[in-house]
Amino acid sequence: MKIKKIVLAYSGGLDTSVIIKWLKETYCCEVIAFCADLGQGEDLSSVKSKALKTGASKAYVMDLKEEFVKEYVFPMLRANAVYEGAYLMGTSIARPLIAKKQVEIAQREKADAVAHGATGKGNDQVRFELTYYALKPDIKVVAPWREWAFDSREALVNYAKKHGIPVPVTKKKPYSTDRNLFHISYEGGILEDPWAEPPADMFTLSASPEKAPAKPEYIEIGYENGDPVSVNNKKLSPAKLLEKLNGLAGRHGLGRLDMVENRFVGIKSRGVYETPGGTVLQIAHRAIESITLDREIMHLRDSLIPKYAELIYYGFWFSPERKALQRLMDEAQKGVTGTVRLKLYKGNCIMAGRKSPVSLYNPQLATFEAETVYNQKDAEGFIKLNALRLKVNSKKQIKKQLNMN
Fold first, then answer.
1. What is the domain-level CATH number for residue 188?
2. Does residue 153 share a domain with residue 106?
């Protein structure tokens, strides 16, 4: 495959640091590095400098935090998406945006190929490449982990040392991480043993529940049409709001998850995650929906959550089916407006109240005390009609049993 110019999704980590050098040696082509600032908490000016020193002809660094939260995280949260009942998909939701910007840079720079540092065992290779092909069908894709002779990260470390490439993986930190404004993930190395508890000093965004404050903290989150817009009555942009909640929730030990998940390629994988702000938003969103969302709309939407979450986890963000489901999810969110009060305490997010100017909750209907808006005798006919098929079926079974005897 003849390639003249490649745009690489670059993080400055071990894999992509080695990849720049490898691409230049293997394809004898120009390499442009692209680093997306999604809130990973790093000095990205040094990342840009590192890319250029390692051999990139040009390096892009883009601040995508607001776009990431508004156009990717919030739509996912509007749908209450959770993969396999636990994972809030902080890594999954970041890949489509990175790949989209990569394609845009490739078109701007007249590059004929794109590359990524995802392994041939993982989900990210699929997420990147499905996005590439969805947005630019004729793009060439280079996936070094599926081509080169390196068979382990230890081999990469040795290659990096040989060529004077600084790498962040050490014996003191024997696992890989991926961080953005929504979460941080940890996998590989010592975490590959699902029986081994994660080391206490590994976590970055959250205090351990044992060391969290002994006093609970109350917070309020305001919603408009399914999106959070304020914290404690202060309006914030999407990225600033998530950043604020990360700090509040992380201080109280919220958002840790240790799970073995099913990768798209069929491998079970152990991942440890911290999603403090996202965990609070998931709980708060469910709470405001409970008083503003019609029952049948909620039940229909909930029945579609596993499929919607699966599409994101597998990498089909730009697929027609995900877009169609998103339209339904967003239509359901019209009127999901109000305020949720939560108590944060030692790893717990406890519901403390919810209110809405368009609430469907009617105290007069719900009360067990005296009221004049509900005729309890109406329930008799309702029950009998719903019991009709059960009675018919029961009589048939009784008749069948009598005939057998």
1. 3.90.1260.10
2. yes
Q: How many domains does the chain have?
A: 3
Residue 256 structure tokens: 């840790």
Both 247 and 348 in a single domain? yes
Is residue 278 located within the same domain as residue 319?
A: yes
Task: Tell whether 182 and 312 lie within a shared domain.
Answer: yes
Q: Are residues 183 and 169 in the same domain?
A: no
Q: Using a CB cutoff of 8 Å and minimum separation of 24, what contacts does 298-304 make?
A: 298/332, 301/79, 301/80, 301/328, 301/329, 301/332, 302/80, 304/328, 304/329
Contact 245, 252 (CB under 8 A): no
Let me know whether 165 and 197 are in one domain: no
* Residue numbers of the domain that contains 156: 5-66+91-173
- The pLDDT assigned to 248 comes to 98
pLDDT of residue 363: 87
Q: Where are the beta strands (DSSP E) in 38-168?
A: 58-63, 113-115, 140-142
CA 107 to chain centre: 28
What whole-number distance in Å separates Cα of residue 133 and Cα of residue 194? 35
> Which pLDDT score is estimated for 239?
98
Give residues with Cβ within 8 angstroms of 47, minimum separation 6. 10, 11, 12, 35, 59, 61
How many Å apart are CA 38 and CA 285, to the nearest integer?
23
| DSSP code for 83 | B
Q: For residues 94 and 278, what is the distance between their CA atoms, to the nearest angstrom?
A: 14
Residues lower than pLDDT 70 in the chain:
168-173
pLDDT per position as a tens digit, 146-184: 999 998 878 998 999 999 888 765 555 678 889 999 999
- Tell me the catalytic residues: 15, 95, 124, 176
pLDDT for the residue numbered 348 = 98
Task: Look at residue 80 and tell me if it is in a domain.
Answer: no
Q: Which residues pair with 355 in a beta bridge?
A: 339
Tell whether 103 and 203 lie within a shared domain.
Answer: no
* HSE value, Cβ hemisphere, 13 Å, CA-based, for 15: 22
Q: How far is 301 from 319, CA to CA, in rounded Å? A: 19
In this prediction, residue 173 carries a pLDDT of: 66
Q: Are residues 22 and 138 in the same domain?
A: yes
Pairing of β 217-224 and β 58-63: unpaired
b/e string for 141-157 if b means 16 or more Cβ within 10 A? Answer: bbbbbeebebeebeebb
Question: pLDDT value at position 358?
Answer: 97
